[in-house]
Amino acid sequence: MISSKPLDIPCSLQERKVLEKIALAAHELGVPAYLIGGFVRDKLLGRKTKDMDIVCVGDGIALAHKVAESLGNNIPVSFFKTYGTAQVKWNELEIEFVGARKESYRQESRNPEVSAGSLQDDQNRRDFTINAMAISLKDMDYGSLLDPFDGIGDLDRKIIRTPLEPAQTFSDDPLRMMRAIRFASQLQFTIEATAFTAIRENAERIRIISQERITDEFNKIMLSPKPSVGLDLLYKAGLLKIIFPQMIDMVGVEMYEGKGHKDNFYHTLQVVDNIAENTRDLWLRWAALLHDIGKPATKKFEPGHGWTFHGHDAVGGKMVQRIFTRMKLPLSDKMKLVKKLVELHLRPISLTKENITDSAIRRLLFDAGDDIEGLMMLCEADITSKNKAKVKRYLENFELVRKRLKEVEESDRIRNWQPPVTGEMIMDTFGLKPGRIVGELKSAIREAILDGEIPNTYEAAYAFLLEKAGALNLTPVK
Ligand code: CTP
Hints:
Blueprint lengths: L12 H17 L3 E4 L1 H8 L5 E6 L3 H12 L5 E4 L4 E6 L2 E7 L1 E4 L8 E4 L2 H6 L9 E3 L8 E2 L4 H7 L1 E2 L5 H7 L2 H13 L2 E2 L1 H10 L8 H12 L4 H11 L2 H4 L1 H4 L6 E2 L2 E2 L3 H13 L5 H9 L4 H4 L1 E3 L3 E3 L3 H15 L6 H12 L2 H4 L7 H11 L3 H10 L6 H25 L10 H8 L5 H15 L7 H14 L7
Parallel strand pairs: 2-5, 10-11
Antiparallel strand pairs: 1-2, 1-8, 3-4, 4-5, 6-7, 8-9, 12-13, 14-15
The structure holds cytidine-5'-triphosphate.
């Protein structure tokens, strides 16, 4: 009786039930089956996981169909005949089935030549020892851990190591170089020295990997608890200069007349870590990554003054779309958010000076809109001074800015505000077609309200419009 046998990994009741069904189906088909890969690793680490990978010595698609049948009526199986893989979704679980494989790779592609193999062949071709562990679903040793490369020891020692010769593993599938660094960053593990050397030596081969896959791994690094771990490894491995050259332009300190500026690369890494402590939002983390990306292009040494980066906010903002396009990141509202935060990241600092008017606060609320909280988070993360007293003072200043923002927002409701006289109203009033004059009148009204020159009411705005239009010799048509 399988169900009375214990498993070598902790599983929920539901997971146990599914594994028993898979074991039974495999038994009926006469194919040895195993649970393998990330699920085993994550269970042993006590991490959440919902993707099960099942490998069987036989036809994975046939096993998937049999399992789906036994789980209930009409459970669909999606399968890819060419790859011999199948997927079954059941409740929150996603179960992947594949036949055990032996693989050999060609130089120019990451698509392997595949043939059927044993469990051991399949474990050999996996990327890391911690991902090659399997749990047997066979009658005779149901539930036991099959760990030929001491993955469990590596979990304990917190090491990323390849089952075979590292150069072979990475050259076979260069995406694994990104994966090694991603796991190191996610799990806070160390990449074994020989494996890291192999990554450095094979870095160029990352070029055969599709941008989507690279970006997927990059984003996992960005979402890890301390993204600087992965970002710094990407740099040291020589991968960053291939996948993200603009970041490399930020590396290093230039000296002139005995004066240096800070290393913008390591400053940025610190800012990303700082924001990661407060948010899991990928796009706020991206804004932190790109906030100073305009610095290399705007760097100047001004005699008597030192290093300056005038306009790096605007230049950086312009670079965002190009970087998103190259990285195949979505060119959606998310990109607009990142661009906006990069452009605005110096504004709250300027509001920490004395005698700041309500109108400056109102303008920032108008420009940032609902993203004001993200912007404040970015500014606070941007404080990377080692001097504790300074950090405290800067944070207190931002606290005051937050207070002022709150007060002005409560009285003026400017965040999602639209001026009370719209473009259509202007066109109707003067019989104008869309064009430059309408735009100018509209922005004159907006500016006058933001500056506090006129109150935020329809009457005041309309009177102001008539006056402005009069100066341009425009008269109302009705
Ligand atoms: N694998 C591999 N080489 C790759 C990708 C995957 O050897 N380039 C193997 C590993 O054994 C891995 C398993 O396939 O554990 C499943 O891959 P995947 O689902 O992509 O990754 P997980 O390890 O499950 O991790 P995560 O879910 O965090 O991506």
